[in-house]
Structures are given as structure tokens and as C-alpha cells.
Fold this sequence. Notes:
The protein is α/β, with parallel strands linked by helices. It folds into two domains: 5-43 and 280-382, Alpha-Beta Complex (Aspartate Aminotransferase, domain 1); 46-275, Aspartate Aminotransferase, domain 2, CATH 3.40.640.10. The protein has helices at residues 5-8, 14-27, 46-58, 70-84, 98-110, 125-133, 149-153, 176-189, 217-220, 246-259, 265-275, 281-298, 326-337, 362-382; strands at residues 33-34, 93-96, 116-121, 137-142, 160-164, 192-196, 222-227, 240-243, 305-306, 314-318, 339-340, 342-343, 352-356. Helix 3 (46-58) runs antiparallel to helix 11 (265-275).
Amino acid sequence: MRISKRIASASPLATTAMHGRVDxxxxxxxxxxxxxxAISHFAAPEAVRRDVSDMxxxxxxxxxAVGGAHGLRARLVEKLKMENEIDALPEEVIVTNGxxxxxxxxxxxxxxxxxTVIVFRPYWPAYLATARLLGLEVVLVDLPxxxxxxxxxxxxxxxxxxxxxxHNPTGKVFARDELDLLEGWLAxxxxxxxxxxxxxxxxxxxxxxxxxxxxxWRKLGIVTIFSxxxxxxxxxxxxxxxVGPADVVSAMETLQGPITxxxxxxxxxxxxxxxxxxxxxxxxxxYQGRRDLVMDMLSPVKWMxxxxxxxxxYIWVDVTALGCDTVAFSERLLAEKRVAIMPGDxxxxxxxxxxxxxxxxxxxxxxxxxxxxxxGNEINxxxx
Length: 384
């Protein structure tokens, strides 16, 4: 059977592929510590489990409108107003099977093959993979510590810019001043934007601001994506939504119809329950404690450069001082120490590694981090 050229040249996401390898090793009876991806040790909020259980046991589960039940979209409009200062209408909201579906549909609706898309590096691999599937030209720009007018002025003409705020994997949270500069640049250049705010609740020190809260998002062509996966420990629920100009959302619905139609009624019930379950203070406090523990363990290591993340479930580490290939480093670490990490190459930055710190218990977290440090020390010693 002939496979199409557009998919034959594509590869599975490195992040999910590594996690799949670890799962296979575990099925074969091997003990592996998996830091390659962030899967919360918390359960979904009680309200989510209760509401979905009640619906599954007692309610008829009908089809809903492709973009989501009107009542849910109206409720999400309330969430956007209260928490993100985004004024929207129900028809400007679309409910999706997680953030990835919203990303794909928004990029499909807002671009044509050959268009240029700007992506900051390091990047969530789905941004690049989706752009390639859609035949887009990607311009990679190194993520700055602070976004400045000078940097924005160096960017090339583009159809779309993708912003991840809070940022995966560095944990950077963009300040309001930075977003104001970006808004001005979008207005001057006519470039649209997709803003992924999936980690909006996982904040440790800096407040989160939505780019669309400035009020010109319709005119500027900004689509903002939200997800319950990380913010509410609901990875397997596949629960997300997006808000954008009505014509863009309508186009996304046109695409979503033949792909999946609406998310399941159970997913939609979970979506409403999650986004109105209150702030996940206990979850964030636990994650912050884990982050601080990892920073205490890694900061003294001479061959590591670690910046404390302001958000998210990952530690992003510069290991260029080891002078080794980070793909080979991660492969050897998995084979010899049974610890999985994500090489920065998969996120556009060789010489770096990404490590999730929210899975398993504290003892396992300590054990895995200690194994990584010991392994790197061996390499560092051998290179002398």
C-alpha cells in the first residue's frame, strides 16, 4: 500500500515516542524512572470525577454541536472573563480533544501551505510537527530571557507566530510589558498569533497574563488555547478549548466536524467541572516543593546550568559543559541507569535536557535525579 508523501516524511513526536518506549520496558518487567514526560501523580479534581460518574451512570449521552454544547461554551466564556480578562462570545469558543487538536485546527484554519510560522526555541515538539504536516515554513527564534522591541524588529514577515505562555520547557512566564510589545508588533506587521496557555495554573512566583486580555485579539487574529491536562492533572481526559475570532473558530469547526465532531459528552462534562473546580492550590504547592527539591540537588552540579522555572512541571538544564551528544547521553542513561529524560534536540536545543518532576513519589524523584547526577559525573570525569 502506498503511503502519502505528506505523512511518509513525518516522524512520531519524540516526546511521546520516548514515553512509549518506557511503557514497553515496564511491560517487560523492567524498573524505569520516567522523567521524559510530565504525568501528574494527582487525581483529577473530585468535582470532575463526580460529575462524569453521575453523567455516565444516569444520563443519556447525546451528540452535541461540533464546537461543543452551547451551555458549556457559555460557561467557558465566564471563565475567560473572570480569570483571563478576555471578553468573548460563545460562538468564539470551540471545545476540543485536548490542546493538540485545537493547535492543529487553528494552524490549519489560519495558514496555507508555504506560509511562514515563527516558533520560539526550545519548543513544544507538536508546534513543529504540526507545521510540517501542513506544509508551512518554520522560522525558529531563540527564546530570550526578556522579549524586547529590538528582538521583535528582527523577526521576518510571517503569517503566524506561536507563543507558549507559560513556556514549556523553560518555565518562563511572559510579563505584561512583554505581551504589550508583542501586541504592538502584531498590529504593525499583520501577523496573527496562536497562544498556548495550557500551563496557566502552574505558577510559582510570577502572575500569568493572557495576550488576548488587551482587548484587540479579534482585530489582530489571536487564538488562545487552554487545556485541563496539566493545570488540573487530567492528562488522559483529553480536555481542551480555544477562543478566537468567530470566523477562525467557525473554520476550526468545519475541520473538526469530519475528524471527531464534538468531544464526547463525558469529556465536555469534565471540561466544565475542571475549569470551575477552583484554583489547584494543593497541586501547585506540591509541585513547587518538588521543584525546589530538584533545584537543591542540581544547582551545585558544576556541569549543569539550571535556571529555576517560574511555572510548569519541567526542569530545563544546560549540559553543554559535558561536551557530549545529548541524544547519546539520554540513550545511555536509559540503558545503563534505567532513567528516561528528554534530550533537548527533540525541542530544538542540542546540549540541553528536559526533566519532568511531578510523577511518582518523592523517594523515586530523589533516586532518579541522583542517578542522573552520578551518570553525568562519570562522563565528566572520563572526559578529563
